[in-house]
Amino acid sequence: MPSFDFSSELDMVALKNAIDATGKKIIGRHDFKGTSAKVELNEKDKIVTLFADSEFQLNQIKVILFPEMEKKEADCTKRLDAQTMQKVSGDKVKQELKIKSGIDSELAKKIVKLLKDSKLKVQAAIQGEEVRVTGAKRDVLQEAIALIKKSITDFPIRSGNFRD
């Protein structure tokens, strides 16, 4: 029976490239000269940390970072969970952006419910951070992919691992 998986994996190499490109642009910009503006990536904890001298400067870093990330991997900024801005020594500020990877249980349940409510002849099962969809025909599975991609736009979801 044909099946495939819905998943949401982070492309860490693309993220590193985007952060490196952002760092180079920050160094090259005249309005950032002599400031503490920088972007750091903690791969282990999956956190991007932005450092700046003011809230305005922090927002300017985001204006540079987000398009760079989108260039490398479409919709990847949707997986960022912005934490509250923190004051660091003096007037300096920092903000952490947590990176969500994988499909959490709430979103997985939403996908299964959407597929059940659609009356498509497919079965969906939650398997850890993925949702496996099984159906009798390829065409039905393709309809399921189209339905989920159209319905869920607030988080990047990929379909893959197709088996026949």
Feature tags:
5-stranded antiparallel β-sheet, alpha+beta, single chain, elongated, 164 residues, 9 strands, 4-stranded antiparallel β-sheet, 28% strand
Give the DSSP E fraction (strand runs of 2 or more residues): 25-35%
Alpha carbon gyration radius = 20 Å
> Based on CA inertia axes, which overall geometry fits?
elongated
Q: Please give the number of β-strands.
A: 9
Helix content range of the residues, please? 25-40%
Provide the structure class: alpha+beta
Order of helices and strands: EHEEHEEEHEEHE
List the helices and strands and how they pair.
Blueprint: E1 3-7, H1 12-28, E2 38-42, E3 47-52, H2 55-72, E4 80-82, E5 86-87, E6 93-99, H3 105-117, E7 122-127, E8 130-135, H4 138-151, E9 158-163
Antiparallel strand pairs: 1-8, 1-9, 2-3, 3-6, 4-6, 5-6, 7-8
Helix pairs in contact: 1-2
Protein model, in words:
β5 (86-87) and β6 form a beta hairpin. α1 crosses α2. It is built from 4 helices and 9 strands; from the N terminus they run βαββαβββαββαβ. Strands 2, 3, 4, 5 and 6 form a 5-stranded antiparallel β-sheet that branches. Strands 7-8-1-9 form a 4-stranded antiparallel β-sheet, with helices on one face. With 164 residues, the chain is an alpha+beta fold. The protein starts with a strand and ends with a strand. The protein has helices spanning 12-28, 55-72, 105-117, 138-151, and strands at 3-7, 38-42, 47-52, 80-82, 86-87, 93-99, 122-127, 130-135, 158-163. 38% of the residues lie in helices and 28% in strands. The chain is elongated.
